[in-house]
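Lab notebook, design round three. We kept the backbone fixed and only want residue identities now. Task for the bench partner: fill in a sequence for the structure below.
Input structure tokens:
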């Protein structure tokens, strides 16, 4: 792939025609120093592609309007700082750098892409736990060293976990969702809007809601005019990976109900949105349908 040819020389590209970011909103997360080095149309080749012949480069394509983007950006920033120059983090703000995003053939955010010896290698499109990202980076550095780029990791340090995060993980290992919920809530009380804690709490709340439910019986006995029944079914569908069914169910509920019940269904649906991979086509479709229903 030729990066110089892939990036248009003018700024006339309409990013919204290529990427579905219409459903994103400005994140409520507080501003903090930006990790990594900003990638632009002008420095992509010189500062990142060319350097990938000597050093592993990881590019994160993100949007400041996406909480999931901010979460993985924070994780990668912590890892790069911990690894002290073992690899280079570049950040592509797709809102301000649409030509770069097009050159990288990005379809949704967030997505992490490695460049090793000028070759692109997709890493992940979701928001994995820090431990999983650590393993991916270690493996990437090991493979790159075999190609003569950089050095294999010997003993890269683990990022120290927050005390509440440690408590939550310990509770989750024992399936103690109540204790995990308390830990995440304590973390958010100390550090409001912490992305990992926000997502963790949403996941734990889901597990608490479905814990003890008989999935087959709950779905089979669902009543279309019973809001509680429909919410439970949607939770089960999300928990079992049937995202599209959950979204369709709650969108139908929003169409059918009114007043407080309609609002409760809407808030529940938005909460479930946070638990799904941002690149999931069913999520993008459901967000658009919800917007059509409300406006």
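Proposed sequence:
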């Amino acid at each position: 792939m030729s990066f110089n040819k892939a990036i248009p020389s003018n700024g006339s590209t309409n990013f919204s025609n290529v990427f579905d970011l219409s459903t994103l909103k400005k994140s409520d997360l507080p501003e903090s120093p930006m990790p990594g080095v900003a990638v632009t149309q002008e420095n992509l080749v010189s500062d990142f592609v060319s350097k990938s012949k000597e050093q592993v480069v990881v590019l994160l394509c993100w949007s400041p309007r996406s909480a999931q983007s901010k979460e993985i950006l924070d994780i990668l920033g912590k890892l790069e700082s911990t690894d002290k120059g073992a690899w280079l983090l570049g950040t592509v703000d797709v809102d301000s750098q649409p030509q770069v995003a097009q050159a990288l053939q990005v379809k949704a955010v967030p997505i992490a892409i490695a460049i090793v010896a000028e070759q692109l290698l997709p890493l992940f499109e979701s928001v994995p736990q820090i431990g999983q990202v650590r393993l991916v980076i270690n493996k990437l550095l090991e493979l790159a060293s075999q190609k003569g780029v950089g050095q294999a990791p010997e003993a890269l340090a683990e990022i120290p976990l927050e005390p509440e995060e440690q408590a939550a993980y310990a509770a989750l290992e024992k399936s103690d969702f109540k204790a995990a919920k308390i830990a995440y809530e304590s973390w958010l009380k100390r550090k409001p809007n912490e992305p990992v804690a926000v997502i963790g709490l949403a996941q734990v709340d889901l597990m608490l809601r479905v814990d003890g439910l008989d999935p087959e019986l709950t779905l089979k006995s669902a009543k279309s005019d019973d809001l509680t029944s429909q919410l439970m079914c949607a939770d089960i569908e999300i928990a079992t990976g049937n995202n599209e069914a959950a979204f369709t169910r709650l969108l139908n509920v929003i169409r059918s109900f009114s007043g407080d019940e309609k609002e409760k269904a809407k808030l529940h649906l938005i909460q479930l949105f946070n638990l799904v991979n941002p690149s999931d086509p069913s999520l993008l479709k459901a967000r658009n349908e919800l917007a059509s229903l409300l406006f």
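Keep this in mind before ordering anything: The first strand starts at residue 37 and ends at 38.
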